[in-house]
TrEMBL record:
Region (Disordered): 1-25
EC numbers: 3.2.2.21
UniProt family annotation: Belongs to the DNA glycosylase MPG family.
Catalytic activity, as annotated: Hydrolysis of alkylated DNA, releasing 3-methyladenine, 3-methylguanine, 7-methylguanine and 7-methyladenine
CDD domains listed in its UniProt record: AAG (cd00540)
Gene3D superfamilies: Methylpurine-DNA glycosylase (MPG)
GO BP, sorted A to Z: base-excision repair
Pfam families on file: Pur_DNA_glyco
Keywords assigned: DNA damage, DNA repair, Hydrolase
UniProt-listed PANTHER family: DNA-3-METHYLADENINE GLYCOSYLASE (PTHR10429:SF0)
Biased composition (Basic and acidic residues): 1-19
Protein name per the record: DNA-3-methyladenine glycosylase II
Annotated source species: Paramecium tetraurelia
Length: 234
DNA sequence: GTTGGGATTATCT
DNA sequence: GATAATCCCAACG
């Protein structure tokens, strides 16, 4: 149904288009009232403990510069992973491998891991380099719609399928393991977060698909925007 | 060098 | 909602 609006105009006149207005046409629950602050979030923001940071990240806007243009999306779902004690965390018990070593960075860096083939999941480190903690970005709401559609190449007619899952978020942003360690506070990275003053109603639940984590699987460390259709199914 | 499973997704019925 | 796909990665030898 909405597919027609999605696939129209792949190029041409794509300058000066009001992004929020575009979303409004395509999504039943648009973020049309969001209030961007066009300043890169700095290292102080990411110094918070991982559970606090997971909450603070809800509503923030990810910006990534690509050859195709600038990708923007609102974070609508996160999960906190906190080693060494958290059995769900890849760095549980301070397990440090080639994959997990990126946990040991100051807050505001990326940890990207691959899973089930060509899926790359995006994490943002919290606290300091001595704290192996990171926030998994499980879902975002696209703002720069045309570019994301072009990048993701999904055949689905549901706009939500562009970004309602952790692997899909990595796909939207064209991330892979080469982006491990990227600094979100460094202007040269071409990727950063900006603030959004809109207040969202935030839901809390246990984390998803970590049944192996025993007593840690029930921790209320998942946060999401209530009534937002881009939140993952779980 | 081989193996087994995963913080998932796409594509069916 | 069920299942196949798909490949990286860590844990063995």
């Amino acid at each position: 149904m909405k597919q027609k609006e999605i696939k129209q105009k792949d190029n041409l006149d794509q300058q000066e288009k009001p992004v929020a207005k575009k979303i409004k046409k395509n999504e039943a629950n648009p973020a049309e009232e969001y209030e961007v602050v066009e300043t890169m979030l700095t290292a102080d923001f990411y110094k918070a403990g991982v559970v606090e940071l997971a909450q603070k990240l809800i509503g923030k806007i990810i910006v990534r510069q690509l050859p195709q243009g600038e990708v923007r999306a609102i974070i609508v779902e996160t999960e906190a992973y906190k080693a060494p004690e958290d059995k769900a965390c890849h760095a549980y018990n301070n397990k440090k491998t080639d994959r997990t070593k990126y946990f040991w960075q100051d807050g505001g860096h990326l940890y990207v891991y691959s899973i089930y083939g060509n899926n790359y999941c995006l994490n943002i480190t919290a606290a300091t380099k001595d704290d192996p903690e990171a926030v998994l970005i499980r879902a975002v709401q696209p703002l720069s719609f045309d570019i994301i559609k072009e990048i993701r190449k999904t055949k689905s007619t549901k706009v939500q399928d562009l970004s309602n899952g952790p692997g899909k978020c990595g796909g939207c942003l064209l991330l892979d393991k080469s982006h491990n360690g990227l600094n979100l506070c460094d202007q040269k990275s071409g990727m950063y977060l900006i603030d959004n003053k809109k207040q969202y109603e935030i839901g809390v639940s246990a984390r998803i698909n970590i049944d192996y984590a025993e007593e840690w699987k029930d921790k209320p460390w998942r946060f999401y925007v209530k009534n937002n259709s881009f939140v993952s199914k779980g």
